[in-house]
Amino acid sequence: MAHKYHLLAMFLGTFANYVVALWPIPRSISTGTVPLKLSSAFTIHLQAEFSDPPSDLLSAISRARSRLSSDRFERLVIGRGATDAQAIQSAHVLTSLNLALLPGSPIRSIAEESTRAIDTKSESYELSVPNDLAVATLTANSTLGLLRGLTTFEQLWYDYKGTKYMLNGPVQITDNPAFPYRGFSFDTSRNFYPVSDVLRTLDAMSWVKLSILYWHIIDSQSFPLDVEAFPELAEKGAYSTDEVYTREDIKQIIQYANERGIDVVMEMDSPGHTTAISAAHPEHIACAAKSPWSKYASEPPAGQLRIASPSTLSFARAMFDSVAATLPGTMMSSGGDEVNLPCWEEDEQTMADLAARNISIADALNEFVQTVQGVITDHGKVPFIKSDMVLTHNVPVVNDTVVVVWQTSEDAAAVAERGLRFIHQPSNYFYLDCGAGDWLGDNILGNSWCDPFKTWQRAYSFDPYANLTAAQHGLVLGGQMPIWSEQSSPENLDPIVWPRLAAGAEVFWTGASLPDGSSHPNETSGTRALARLNELRYRFVDRGVNAIALQPKWCALRPGECDLDS
Amino acid sequence: MKLLAVVAFVACVGSVLALWPLPRSLETGSTALKLAPAFDIHLNIAHPPSDLESAVSRTKSFLKDDKLGRLVVGRGASDATAAQHAKTLHTLELSLGHGAPVRSITDEARLTIGTRSEGYTLHIPADGSTATLSANSTLGLFRGLTTFEQLWYAYSGQVYTIEAPISIADSPAYPFRGFMLDTSRNYFPVSDIKRTLDAMSWVKMSQFHWHVVDSQSFPLEVPGFTELASKGAYSPTMVYSPSDVQEIVSYAGARGIDVMVEIDTPGHTAIISAAYPEHIACPEASPWSTFANEPPAGQLRLASPATTNFTADLLAAVARMFPSSIMSTGGDELNTECYAQDPKTQADLKATGRTLEQALDVFTRTTHAAIRAEGKTPAVWEEMVLDHNVTLSNDTVVLVWISSANAAAVAAKNFRLVHGPSDYFYLDCGAGEWIGDDVANSWCDPFKTWQKSYTFDPLANISESQAHLVLGGEQLLWTEQSGPENLDSIVWPRAASSAEVFWTGPRGNLSTALPRLHDLAFRMRQRGVKAIQLQPMWCALRPGKCNIDS
């Protein structure tokens, strides 16, 4: 990351009412005090060298233009847009935005750029919105960078009676992400979500420059994934025939994601969290729905792949192979969390297999992981694995494996000590499902295991480099906030995810320092971010995503006045 | 009230009746029975009121459209044969008891609390002969229709039960079964309120407590005081006009729900200063934490005769907008520092020679007299009887909110009370602090699960001789962190918890309640209310399998 950062005047610190509604905040931004507005004939041009522009770039431009026309989000001040009516009247008019690639940059589709290896993606851009010329310019060295810049450009404008304006011209932005992996982990097994919900979520993710959908598509409760080699898995393991992602659906979702700068990491959680496979293939599952579940699993129903069985190993190999073949990205996860030893120890077949082959459960687990990681790498993909597989079970993993650190933020340092790359997904900062009480049937007054609710402030205060040496910083690819769906479903998807997920998006885009030079996170970063996050929330609602209110609207219209000491 | 509970499903978890709230007396069999394609509901009533006819027609639509598959693995496939060979029910006949008055549901629902007749009996023979629903009021018939709708599952075009014959004699344990919505912190369009009223009626709630205004915004257009909304609403589109109010109270009434409006006074009124700055002490004073429980600060100048008269006139004008016989004047979280530092209030106190408490007494007596003159019984928050020395008439209804432990003290003062304790019934708790730079948890942590609400005992620490003072209770949504975006998902199905506590009575069995609550949530979703999933669907299809010890 060789960009020079211009730490110029920021409004946020000094004029709380003049918020630039950008989220995530660019890594370098300078603004002025001149009102600007878009001409009614405002256009977005691609520079001439795009003789044959990628169609997904054209679509991105067309989406940007459409939002610049249809967004109705007004500035969050008392009186809303009317307050600015006079300024709008005399505002400097911008007639177009020119998009250009830097000389020598390859012209590839956004989808292609989005699915490149995680550490080789180019997302940087420069945006110049002048107050003396009619043309703004956006430059990048990839179409993905242009997409990120368009996303920023869209956020610069408020609406008042159809006119798009801002008060802070000129604007100069030089931006690129602190971390390449900025994700959302989505559990579609505990409860099912229709394709339309996934697509809407991808749109919202792209608005905050998230780069990864980590799709926890299957689990013990249901198997909604149509696997070409084993169609019976979904036929018998999905909640219903309507609650299945067909191969067409998967293709559509991945394409939709990629065109929006999002790569999809599919997780086939194994060998635990696989009970639903037993509906079609009981022969491969130990302790299927065995009682009491609490002895054999972290949650009901119990059931794990028979890791010691050669036929189960071939089944797993074939299943991973069939799924991997449909995934265009360069990453795939085999999960690996919460394996339960008594499940295997009390499974006659597993014990017989172990005895016959004269191996231990640990040996079998190693072999299983090696097998599924082997399939993933054979498909040219980087394997992901859950942190307990490495830290608790000491399973050897492929060198470039990415570890998903989930149990606690404390585990990151231990993973780093092993020299493995990782992403942050700590339950004590990022789990979106915590705090709604225990969902087990008769645990009357139980709280959720990861209480309390993780507020956006909590997530925002996360430090990706905590307890890491400088030499280990390169191992941190980024992080993701997950929604586990035991108590979630299409009914509350938007409100439970948004705007909280945006907190993680900024932590990993903007990184350790805010553009005003202050460190992020710090004691007060949450306060200053709130005004911007309120704006993002209102913009989301305007665009049809049901992000919840973080405060009474009275507070949203008066940044700072609902702080503790104001 | 006789309790003839012969509850069939306790022994047989696999085939629960999807009833919520559970009737107080219920007998079921094990015979399958299905609805005829031409199933009809006959009103055995001359000149039935139009809201009863509408209720019947809604029931018929729900029976056709609910399409609730039984929550078992296979969703009713295992019932297909039984349903196919089942006897067919062609008719449900509704009749009123001998000599019962024929009034509209709306009129019955708005009768004085404690005098409403909500009981009904429902008989569904297993042999296909006519089912009968009878009651002593159209409101009772409406409650019975609501029960009837919940008896049926659907599979492959058949609408059936596997538990005929069914015999129900039902009436509520408490008359006040409510839900409170705050429409001031954030605004909710009329359509959201109507959808909420629908959902409330499906669980036989009787009272919508509308906390319509507060310090943050004044979205109610009051005739004669229109500047309050034109200057105090969040925007001109975020206002409830008199015709909106009329629409809402009519919609509620036709669904067996009375609307108790609350104009919270003298605290929680900062926004009145937008139109009438002369009536508000400490408006938006800083630091707010000295002057109010949450920003913005601001309270009615209760010692000022002009402000007292203004408030009385305002409350009377609001009272005229609402047909209910009950209205709340609020009264929570009065802040004394706001008045101590307000020169106008200090001058008024000095001029009249009153203490602040005495001024509050005069203020309250005046405002209560004003709404009484409009035929309303006043309701107040608990502080008015527990923390302040205010003269209240005996029939005043007291809303207990700070803690369930305070109900006994209210009862000891011989006031009728409604339970809305934050430690059981606050739907907003547990989402973290919303104050800008505070990273703490919500003040009423943790999140109140449906189980927690369900374990509430309305008579805890209340003597037998005081039991008659308990009118019921309500779950409440304060909307600092809520809006139309999460209304359904934060309210449902949790608010159904208290609906059963106050209809059926306390100490319900949580393990057998859960499958019924799943049924209710699935039915609500089918009807367009975004009730959340309480568990993975895997668990919903397998009652008991996701208990902690199963």
Output the structural class of chain A. Answer: alpha/beta
> What separation lies between the terminal Cα atoms of chain A?
39 Å
Largest sheet of chain A: 8 strands, parallel, barrel
Taking Cα atoms only, what radius of gyration of chain A do you get, to the nearest Å? 24 Å
Helix fraction of chain A, binned, reads 25-40%
How many distinct beta strands of chain B? 16
Strand content of chain A: 15-25%
Mean pLDDT over the full residue set of chain B:
95
Shape of chain A: globular
Instruction: Provide a count of the helices of chain A.
Output: 21
The quaternary state of the protein chains shown equals: heterodimer
As residue ranges, the low-confidence spans of chain A are: 1-18
Mean pLDDT of chain A: 93
Question: Main beta sheet of chain B, described?
Answer: 8 strands, parallel
Supply the helix-strand structural class of chain B: alpha/beta
Radius of gyration of chain B: 24 Å
Instruction: Count the DSSP helices of chain B.
Output: 20
How many beta-strand elements of chain A?
A: 16
Q: How would the blueprint of this fold be written?
A:
The complex is a heterodimer of chains A (566) and B (550).
Chain A (H helix, E strand, L loop, with lengths): L10 H4 L13 E19 L8 H16 L14 H5 L2 E10 L8 H5 L10 E5 L5 E6 L2 H13 L2 E3 L2 E13 L5 E7 L7 H13 L4 E5 L15 H6 L9 H13 L3 E5 L17 E2 L6 H4 L7 E2 L4 H15 L6 E3 L7 H5 L2 H10 L3 H18 L3 E5 H5 L10 E4 L5 H7 L3 E4 L2 H4 L25 H5 L15 E8 L9 H5 L2 H11 L14 H18 L10 H4 L10
Parallel strand pairs in A: 1-2, 2-4, 7-8, 7-16, 8-9, 9-12, 12-13, 13-14, 14-15, 15-16
Antiparallel strand pairs in A: 1-6, 3-4, 3-6, 5-6, 10-11
Helix pairs in contact in A: 2-5, 6-8, 10-13
Chain B lengths: L24 E19 L6 H16 L14 H5 L2 E10 L8 H5 L10 E5 L6 E5 L2 H12 L3 E3 L2 E13 L5 E7 L7 H13 L4 E5 L14 H7 L9 H13 L3 E5 L17 E2 L6 H4 L7 E2 L4 H15 L6 E3 L7 H5 L2 H10 L3 H17 L4 E5 L1 H4 L10 E4 L6 H6 L3 E4 L2 H4 L24 H5 L15 E8 L9 H5 L4 H9 L5 H17 L10 H4 L10
Parallel strand pairs in B: 1-2, 2-4, 7-8, 7-16, 8-9, 12-13, 13-14, 14-15, 15-16
Antiparallel strand pairs in B: 1-6, 3-4, 3-6, 5-6, 10-11
